[in-house]
Fold this sequence. Notes:
The structure holds 2 protein chains of 2 kinds.
Chain A: H1 21-36, E1 41-48, E2 53-62, E3 67-77, E4 84-87, E5 99-102, H2 105-116, H3 119-134, H4 139-142
Chain B: E1 2-8, H1 15-24, E2 29-33, H2 39-50, E3 64-68, E4 72-80, E5 88-93, E6 97-104, H3 113-134, E7 139-144, H4 152-155, E8 162-163, E9 173-176, E10 179-182, E11 184-185, E12 203-204, E13 215-216, E14 219-223, H5 225-228, E15 231-236, E16 239-240, E17 243-244, E18 263-267
Parallel strand pairs in B: 1-2, 6-7, 8-11
Antiparallel strand pairs in B: 1-18, 2-3, 4-5, 5-6, 7-14, 9-10, 12-13, 15-18, 16-17
Helix pairs in contact in B: 1-2
Amino acid sequence: MSTSQIPDLWSSSISPVVATPLALLRSQAVQLSNHTGGIVRADVVTASAKGSSREHCLVISAPALDFKQEIVKVVHDVPIVYPCSVYAEEFEDDSREPYWVASSPESVISALGQVLQSDRIVALINSLVAVSNEEEPTDSAVK
Amino acid sequence: MLRIGFWNTHRKSLLDPITSWTRDHELNAVLLAESPHKSDTLAGELSNRLGCLWKAPRIPLRRFCVAFRDPVTSFEPESVDLSERAPVMVLSTDVETINVALVHFPSLLHRSEDDNTLMAAELSKRLEDQEQKTRHSRTMLVGDLNLNPFSKAVVSAAGLHATMSQRLLAKGGRKVDGAHRKMFYNPMWRFLGDGGESPPGTYFHRSSSPSALFWHAFDQVLLRASLVQRLIDVKIVTRVAAHDLSTQLGRPNKAKYSDHFPIVVRLSRPKLERVHVHFADS
Lengths: 143, 282
């Protein structure tokens, strides 16, 4: 076998540009304000978890209502960020742990899509927008 | 007076006994777990059946059904956890606001006590954040903890930090490893076992395991020091009007009603501080 005939055995999923779970969550956080005109926002709150792991929680808030809710959480080791675990109500079933294991950004995006487009989250955000609009306009909601 | 009732209704409608319970105890806030009803539905039913205006939170709660009436003017969630099992609400009356953690931790049939310990620690942190935000500690916790008052998650400073005696709350908390940790008073301790007019708990579970407790006080009310002085009483309710909620053996009648007894807590109105008016010299 000549050198040119040696196959590339590496996975096509490996690329020179890989987004971290934190970058994916931050991107979604920014997009929510675009959808709601800033009435409902999202932020990523990061905390250290057990051992060397990190937790990133996507928290939505409605400033006019003084309301906030955690909606999805991603947990990973440091510095190895994949695989990571995505926790949300949408993954809760009869199994003991309600999470989705993602080994790539595409898998995280798939999991986040299931959560962010779920009836639960759509209903919650629509309710927050509706109720916020009934409140007196505030500086934060006028932008 | 503020009268708050909590009941895990075991996925049953129970509108008739809920109405009787609300009427008998003159409740101002009805908090249900495992209810098939939405808060709007409950508020509408209570308004129709009791002839006064009941309201529901404007922000929907997925795991709880909540209705309230005068003197409660609003009762809205402000900080909701990932599982939606322990939203921190703010109850407002014409004279004050109270932080209320509404809790339904997972059953120990499906999770370990360690899992609930983690949830208790997370809730404790959120309550402290809420108290910092609202700048007061008029805070209470009510719900089905699926933990007993003596569970580590309820007692430990790393959890809810709830103690059995009001006197221990004289300073509002205590120092643990050099840091001040606020405490709760847990009046449910006195309901453990026989000896009073109440049943030996709020929930009964028969088990063949060697260390079976049988009776549990899973449904609890915890109060910070500033609310303890206003506590009139806590009751476990076993009968409302014509509805006997217990079996012949005195256990919750889960076939007809629920596997939990409801509880009711009564708080006196706050004493308004005397306002001293100083007139400037003219």
